[in-house]
């Protein structure tokens, strides 16, 4: 009997080890790839990365504009404003005109982008959760899908920008000061608490979407400027 | 104190009263505070500056000033418009320093006049959403060629204010093209590229091109100034079409050629109808085959030309002449008979071959009538000494028909069955006469002769021809200018017994060699009815020659009365009496008769008996020409001098 138990224990342990091994190996992490210019490491060229990132940001902004217009049509037909409301990302200093943007430099611009992207991951999931739980029938599934899509896109874009930054660091375009920034550090307070205690209502949804639209526009614009500053070409 | 209070109260009241009065006065004078202005639009051309325009309301009759105030997002500071002039009247221009992107502006316009100020409704704008760039610049259009096919290359540049180079603003472009003169534009979205190709151009056309741009989320710019471009002419494009057209035409041509070839014959007939061959009178192909030149040429001689008869009083145009061809020429006659058969069968007058005869000519008519009468006369036929040759029989038929036809033509049709009404009189003594011919038809006896002479015929011959038994010697000769003498050798012209039937079958195709020659009557000649040529005997001259003349309707009269008592038209044979006398009948319808003496002339009008002086004739019998029967009504005497044979039937047997 003891030998049976030990046999079983060994099997279990072996299985567990195998599982852990698989887990670790299959995890898709956001670790930078091709550290230190490893040989045989193939990364797409910077131009392609930039193109992908720029397209992704443009798509994201388009979806958010659609969402906002639908929301605005339902609740605020004529107004597109937020009164006495601040976006939770107001703490992130973003350049408001071209000179400031150009004066900022690539490094800081990249960092701003990353911060913005990081600031939205959590609120979007909460928004999604809130919208799905909303008993109000005004929210249709189409909008929920869009929010879900944007949420995914934010994540992907963030990863993409990080990879691009890594590439740029390798190329010497960016300094090494830029690193992975966790959103918890950037955000002064949890998003949910920023907006409201408790559940978000439709008004909060609207405000949230409004802020999302603006920030996605910022991201898109900053990325374009970054691209044209880094790689001046035909598109610029 | 109370007084001061009262006074103050009253002053206040007075002020209020004055104010009220003033207001009323002002209103009465139509002065009012300005109306509320309206912000119409705000635009940013490059996302760095922007301008707002407002629409003022009525100013209330007083000078009014406008002011724009704005407040930024999350700030309570109110700023006034920095620039009222750059953008024109009723506008406010925000320069780069005053412009913040992704910031809400709360803008208000205030109109102020002496009576008050009015605030407009506030407007919130975000500069990002009000971008409307200027139109693209430096639009160039050029014609380029790609493998022989031209296309337009349009290139442009973004507006110079929009900073696309730094990536601050991203523009997408759109262009439109149309042909000069058309109404609809062709739109093309070019995206972010600054160059575009247009294909499928019309050769030689002039195109108009315009370009405009728009930021990602904003407003479309105005269209750029029109660029004109003319596409040069080129045939390269149309070459395949010409090749197709050429092939098609070639195909059509081939089909037409084939059709023409198939229908060449009918087309030839249509376009170039066959020229009718010349038909020569008297031309016989068979003669050619026989190769007898003399016969051929003699056959060609037209009896009417050249005129050889001595000039007479009357024209010697004998229309109807039947000539009997003797045996020597049997062959020829057979041939001609074949032709006559053909004419027989063809029937009718119109089928006659082209011999120059008149319509409904005697020949064919003869045939028809002959055919008619033949069936009835056959039983009465009596073969008398005929040479039983087929040809004779046929000739008989010919004669019968000929006679009937002749009569038909000459006289009004009153042919009774079995009678030949008319009979041309012919006496053409062909030297080749054989005595084998014998003609005796019952019908032929009725034949009449145009005998114009008192010394005309041997009566016997005459009578024999007119015998009821069918003595008929007829010789039909070609009309006019024939002289033939009645030789004494010939017993009779129409002797019933001696039947040297010599018939000269005068036919247009028959070799009538006797034409133009002097003939000798050799006796009885059965007249051949084949010929439709009828002559009338004009006279008999001293040499015992019977002068014939063609019978026509216009016979002149003999004016002179020579010894030939032919002043009048005695061309009708009334009958032949027993004494072989040819009984002639005087033409009743004709006037101007010259009766010469020497004739037995009855006082009766209808009966004239002329006994031809046979003194000149060595031969008996005398021919007495007399009208044996009265002119009956049914006897139609045509001008042609044919006697109705119906009257002859009543001839007493002599």
From TrEMBL, chain A:
GO terms for cellular component: extracellular space. This is Prolactin-like. The keyword GTP-binding does not apply. The keyword Chloroplast does not apply. It is found in: Secreted. Its main location: secreted. GO terms for molecular function: hormone activity. PANTHER family: PROLACTIN LIKE (PTHR11417:SF33), SOMATOTROPIN,PROLACTIN (PTHR11417). GO terms for biological process: positive regulation of receptor signaling pathway via JAK-STAT; response to nutrient levels. It comes from the Eukaryota. It comes from Xyrichtys novacula (Pearly razorfish).
TrEMBL record, chain B:
Residues 1-28 form the signal peptide. The keyword Transmembrane applies. SMART domains: FN3. Its main location: membrane. Residues 372-381 have a biased composition (Basic and acidic residues). The chain crosses the membrane at residues 241-260. It is a single-pass type I membrane protein. One of its GO terms (cellular component) is external side of plasma membrane. PROSITE patterns: FN3, HEMATOPO_REC_L_F1. Gene3D superfamilies: Immunoglobulins (2.60.40.10). CDD domains: FN3. The keyword Transmembrane helix applies. This is Prolactin receptor.
């Amino acid at each position: 009997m003891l030998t049976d138990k030990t046999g079983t224990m060994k099997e279990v342990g072996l299985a567990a080890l195998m599982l852990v091994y698989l887990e670790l190996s299959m995890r898709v992490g956001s670790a930078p790839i091709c550290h230190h210019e490893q040989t045989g490491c193939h990364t797409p060229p910077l131009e392609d990365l930039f193109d992908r990132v720029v397209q992704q940001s443009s798509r994201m902004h388009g979806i958010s504009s659609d969402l906002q217009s639908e929301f605005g049509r339902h609740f605020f037909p004529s107004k597109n404003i937020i009164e006495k409301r601040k976006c939770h990302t107001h703490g992130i200093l973003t350049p408001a005109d071209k000179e400031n943007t150009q004066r900022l430099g690539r490094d800081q611009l990249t960092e701003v982008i990353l911060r913005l992207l990081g600031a939205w991951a959590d609120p979007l999931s909460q928004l999604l959760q809130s919208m799905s739980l909303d008993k109000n029938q005004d929210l249709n599934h189409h909008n929920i899908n869009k929010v879900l899509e944007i949420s995914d896109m934010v994540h992907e874009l963030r990863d993409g920008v990080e990879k691009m930054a890594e590439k740029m660091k390798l190329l010497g375009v960016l300094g090494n000061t830029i690193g992975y920034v966790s959103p918890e550090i950037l955000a002064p307070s949890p998003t949910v608490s920023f907006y409201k205690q408790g559940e978000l209502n439709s008004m909060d949804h609207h405000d949230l979407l409004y802020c999302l639209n603006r920030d996605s526009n910022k991201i898109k614009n900053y990325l374009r400027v970054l691209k044209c500053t880094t790689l001046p070409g035909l598109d610029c | 104190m109370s007084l001061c209070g009262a006074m103050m109260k009253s002053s206040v009241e007075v002020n209020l009263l004055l104010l009220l009065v003033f207001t009323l006065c002002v209103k009465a004078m139509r002065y009012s505070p300005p109306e509320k202005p309206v912000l119409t639009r705000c635009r940013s051309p490059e996302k760095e500056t922007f301008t707002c325009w407002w629409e003022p309301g009525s100013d209330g009759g007083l000078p009014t000033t406008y002011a724009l105030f704005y407040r930024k997002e999350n700030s309570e500071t109110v700023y006034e418009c920095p620039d009222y002039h750059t953008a024109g009247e009723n506008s406010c221009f925000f320069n780069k320093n005053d412009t913040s992107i992704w910031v809400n502006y709360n803008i208000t316009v205030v109109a102020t006049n002496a009576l008050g100020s009015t605030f407009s409704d506030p407007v919130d704008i975000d500069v990002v959403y009000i971008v409307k760039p200027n139109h693209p610049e430096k639009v160039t259009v050029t014609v380029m060629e790609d493998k022989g096919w031209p296309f337009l290359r349009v290139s442009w540049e973004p507006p110079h204010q929009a900073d696309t180079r730094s990536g601050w603003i991203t523009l997408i472009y759109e262009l439109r093209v149309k042909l000069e003169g058309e109404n609809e534009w062709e739109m093309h979205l070019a995206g972010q590229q600054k160059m575009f190709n247009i294909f499928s151009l019309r050769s030689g056309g002039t195109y108009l091109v315009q370009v405009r741009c728009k930021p990602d989320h904003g407003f479309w710019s105005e269209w750029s100034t029109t660029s004109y471009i003319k596409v040069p002419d080129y045939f390269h494009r149309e070459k395949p079409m010409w090749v197709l057209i050429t092939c098609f035409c070639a195909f059509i041509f081939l089909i037409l050629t084939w059709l023409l070839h198939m229908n060449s014959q009918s087309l030839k007939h249509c376009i170039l109808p066959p020229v009718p061959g010349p038909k020569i009178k008297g031309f016989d192909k068979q003669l050619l085959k026989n190769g007898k030149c003399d016969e051929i040429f003699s056959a060609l001689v037209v009896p009417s030309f050249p005129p050889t008869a001595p000039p007479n009083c009357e024209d010697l145009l004998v229309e109807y002449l039947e000539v009997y061809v003797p045996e020597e020429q049997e062959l020829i006659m057979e041939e001609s008979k074949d032709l006559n058969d053909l004419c027989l069968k063809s029937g009718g007058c119109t089928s006659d071959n082209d011999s120059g005869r008149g319509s409904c000519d005697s020949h064919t008519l003869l045939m028809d009538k002959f055919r008619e009468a033949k069936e009835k006369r056959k039983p009465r036929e009596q073969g008398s000494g005929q040479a039983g040759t087929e040809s004779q029989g046929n000739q008989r038929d010919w004669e019968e028909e000929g006679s009937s036809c002749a009569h038909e033509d000459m006289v009004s049709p009153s042919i009774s069955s079995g009678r030949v009404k008319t009979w041309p009189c012919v006496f053409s003594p062909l030297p080749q006469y054989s005595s084998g011919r014998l003609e005796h038809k019952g019908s032929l006896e009725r034949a009449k002769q145009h005998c114009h002479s008192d010394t005309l015929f041997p009566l016997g011959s005459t009578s024999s021809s007119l015998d009821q038994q069918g003595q008929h010697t007829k010789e039909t000769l070609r009309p006019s200018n024939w002289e033939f003498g009645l030789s004494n050798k010939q017993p009779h012209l129409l002797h019933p017994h001696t039947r040297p039937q010599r018939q000269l079958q005068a036919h247009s195709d028959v070799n009538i060699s006797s034409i133009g020659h002097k003939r000798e009557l050799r006796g009885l000649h059965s007249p051949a009815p084949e010929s439709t040529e009828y002559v009338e005997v004009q006279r008999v001259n001293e040499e015992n020659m019977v002068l014939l003349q063609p019978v026509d309707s216009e016979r002149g009269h003999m004016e002179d009365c020579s010894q030939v008592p032919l002043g009048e038209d005695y061309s009708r044979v009334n009958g032949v009496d027993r004494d072989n006398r040819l009984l002639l009948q005087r033409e009743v319808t004709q006037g101007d008769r010259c009766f010469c003496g020497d004739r037995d002339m009855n006082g009766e009008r209808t009966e004239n008996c002329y006994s031809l002086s046979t003194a000149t004739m060595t031969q008996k019998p005398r021919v007495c020409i007399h009208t044996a029967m009265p002119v009956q009504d049914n006897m139609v005497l045509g001008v042609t001098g044919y006697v109705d044979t119906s009257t002859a039937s009543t001839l007493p047997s002599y």
